[in-house]
Amino acid sequence: MRFRLMKDRQAGASLMEVMVAMTISLVVTAAMIAMMANSLSSTSRIIQMTKLSDDMRVALQMMSRDVRRSSYNANSMFCYANEDCATDGSITAAADITLADLDSDSSNDCFTFLLDRDHDGDSTEDNAGGFRRVISGGVGVIEMWIGNAAADCTDAAGAAGWVQITNPENMDIFGFSIDDDLSYTETILNNGTSTVSQRIRKVRMDLQGRLVFDNSIQRSMEDIISVRNNLVL
Fold first, then answer.
1. Looking at per-residue confidence, does 62 or 3 come out higher?
2. Percent of the chain's residues with pLDDT above 70
3. Which of 16-30, 94-108, 113-127 has the lowest mean pLDDT?
């Protein structure tokens, strides 16, 4: 009987063993919590980076779409197979894309253009368009011209006719530039009497943005757009 009681007393874990097991359990639990927190932080950062990229891509696509259609004229089709059309005044050609440097940093951050939006064959100021980068509340934003008159790059931020296409509460456009350095001119008609040249236009845009609440998350995008309507000179 005495031997049996002693054997019963030895059954189970000692206090030291319990404490060691609890310590190991706490360490494993803490490691799992830290791993989960790190995973959630990484996932959140990836989501923020993706949203920034998507928002910038939408803004760049809007600008690319419009500048690609610049100088469009509904009557241009009348010139098909008509070599004299460009020299006899049959169409009212739109002006070239106008670039402007608003912050005097040797980089153009505003551009305006004309196109025949209402398809009446006359590309005048009531068919103007434009985009620019301005500062609003200490944050860089891209604005689009929707007014009826000719766009003026020097208008104050938020002026009538200009609307934001990027959200300054989430995204800071800290860099925007546009140039037409890849454009060139070629002669398309030289019959000894008349000479007609056309401007083959390629526009390069560079957009740089970052999140307002985390400036370490930044993105840069570039696009080269071939303007569909070559400008007859």
1. 62
2. 80
3. 113-127
Show the tokens assigned to 114: 């004309």
Which segments of the chain are extended strands (E)?
98-100, 110-114, 128-136, 139-145, 162-164, 171-179, 184-190, 195-200, 202-211, 218-226, 231-232
49, containing H or E segment: helix 15-68
Is residue 93 scored above 70 in pLDDT? no
Q: In what order do the strands lie in the sheet with 98-100?
A: 98-100, 110-114, 128-136, 139-145, 162-164
| 3-state class (DSSP) for residue 63 | helix
H or E element at residue 9: helix 2-9
pLDDT tens digits, one per residue of 164-189: 999 999 999 999 999 989 988 888 77
Place of tokens 């800290």: 174
210 to each of 65, 67, 219, how far by Cα in Å?
23, 24, 6
CA gap 115, 102 in Å, rounded: 23
Alpha carbon distance 143, 136 (integer Å)? 10
Question: Distance between alpha carbon 47 and the CA centroid of its chain, in Å?
Answer: 18
In sequence order, the 6+-apart residues with CB closer than 8 A to the CB of 200 are 183, 184, 185, 186, 230
CA 157, 162, 168, 171 dihedral sign is negative
Total residues belonging to the chain? 233
H or E element that contains 3? helix 2-9
